[in-house]
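hey so i finally got around to running the thing on that chain from the lab meeting. sorry it took forever, my laptop kept dying and i had to restart like 3 times. anyway pasting the input first so we r on the same page abt which one it is
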Amino acid sequence: GINRQGGGLSADALTEKDKADIITAAEMQADYVAISFPRSAEDIHLARKLLRDAGGQGGIIAKIERAEALDVIDDIIKASDAVMVARGDLGVEVGDAALPPIQKHIIQRARRLNRVVITATQMMESMIFNAIPTRAEVFDVANAVLDGTDAVMLSGETAVGEHPVKVIEAVDRICLEAEQQREIRVSRHRMDSKFEQMDEAIAMAAMYTANHLDVKAIAALTESGKTPLWMSRMSSGIPIFAMTPHVETRRKVTLYRGVYPVSFTVDHDDHATLNKEAIDELQRRGVVRDGDIVIITKGDLEVQGSTNALKLVRVGDMVEPKVIGKSCE
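ok and heres what got predicted. didnt touch it at all, straight out
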């Protein structure tokens, strides 16, 4: 793309090639399609319409690269499934010095509006040639995580770099360490707002409980992946396991912060048995052991957006986990 310091370019966000690529993405059943240089929510709506008209069901990622996009950032975030802080092109338009607070603001707004956010560009640039990152790169990645980003994206480091595996291993270590810092385990997300949906209320109750009790893991039985998304908006460092029979949902939730997809078949609505099966799966993965406390959320069988139950169970009773707390069911 072409950039101009201060913004002001009038080029359309979607070129003819972009439109053709969206159709190709639909044919491939891509999970996400990233749109470059959007200036308004209308650009995102157009991309989504093109994708749906072509039969695609993937999500839309808005790459924030234009200075003009910052003036309507909430509208763009609401129209998208995820946003990317594309620091290369954006930095050219707004200037390097303005970029750090802008990154923090976009991350904060995306989380506030319950959207996924990706931080990208030169995260570990020196590792294209070097086997270890600079201290500045370590701080950059960690600070993005501490700010609340769902994902950090690598480009040349893995596309053409000499140490692609070492880069991934280094980023993994940095992200996991940052996620475990207790000071980010705060329960203030949307606490001053009314919840709009039942599954959002259950998700927030689960995360508030997890942050104030010694919870080892969260098992979210889900159809669409919406409840794990709500959960991932609140920082906790506690792993969230999105248990679903749908491969599309499993692929989608891999982008959510702290969420791990699990293939989980639900062919009955016996709640006690479902609880046991969920605990058994976590035990097989080595995530929990006897005595650990697990939060389980679930809803009506095969109904999207129906999460309406939260249970706290203590691992150990393999016939039926002992209920130590209970919310609406």
